[in-house]
Design goal:
alpha+beta; Helix Hairpins; Heat Shock Protein 90; 2 domains; five-stranded mixed sheet; 7 strands; about 45% helix; elongated; histidine kinase; kinase; transferase; EC 2.7.13.3; HisK_dim/P_sf
């Protein structure tokens, strides 16, 4: 995707929430609607406002990643604990840790690492996907390995590595700009690790590797 195409898509996606916001504002200003309709319009304003804010945050994160400025303060943390925190509020598919008693310590920006973990848990490319998805967390020598398998449209399986370099197709992005995977890859890289994506038996496999403290 060229820069011109990308900016055109961003402008289009950011404009999408504006139409329902403007309609709701007009109806509320007219004062010609009942209490029930007013409540519904306020819900539209809140929902579309949250959607627009999420898009702007995603765009800002993409720019920070481009300039290598994603991370904030670094502290010692446990990856296994963060993986569980990233799933808070979800009732299904617990994090799978072979040995939960063994700490997986590393220096990290907790908020950014949780953001990456949530992408691994919650990314959906197919309506058949049940979320949150299982996330495998395991130690491999001096690194921690995180793995997620997800259903994927066949056309994306031909060149999976592109998903880390370009936004997802617009039809797969309900509330964002499709930059989740490039941003997650940038977060892994900023922590001295990497995020890889590959095709396996008709599924997409996301694998993150992060360095642990000695």
């Amino acid at each position: 995707m060229s820069h011109a195409d990308w900016f055109g898509r961003v402008a289009h996606d950011l404009r999408n929430p504006l139409a329902p916001l403007q309609t709701a504002a007009y109806l509320l200003r007219c004062g010609d609607i009942g209490a029930e309709e007013q409540a519904r319009m306020l819900e539209v304003v809140e929902r579309q406002g949250v959607r627009l804010a999420a898009m702007i945050d995603e765009l800002a994160d993409g720019l920070r990643a481009e300039y290598g400025r994603l991370l904030g303060p670094m502290t010692e943390t446990d990856v296994g604990t963060l993986a569980v925190l990233a799933a808070n509020g979800n009732d299904a598919a617990p994090v799978q840790q072979p040995d939960e008693s063994a700490p997986l310590r590393m220096r990290a920006d907790d908020s950014r690492l949780i953001q990456m973990l949530r992408t691994l848990r919650e990314l959906r490319l197919s309506p058949d996907e049940v979320l949150p998805a299982p996330l495998i967390v395991e130690r491999q020598g001096a690194t921690v390995r995180l793995e997620r398998h997800l259903a994927c449209p066949p056309e994306l399986l031909a060149h999976p590595a592109r998903l880390l370099e370009a936004p997802l197709p617009a039809r797969l992005c309900e509330d964002g700009l499709g930059l989740q995977l490039p941003i997650a890859a940038a977060i892994a890289q900023a922590h001295g690790g990497r995020l890889d994506v590959a095709e396996q038996d008709g599924m997409l496999v996301l694998t993150a590797q992060l360095p642990l403290e000695a």
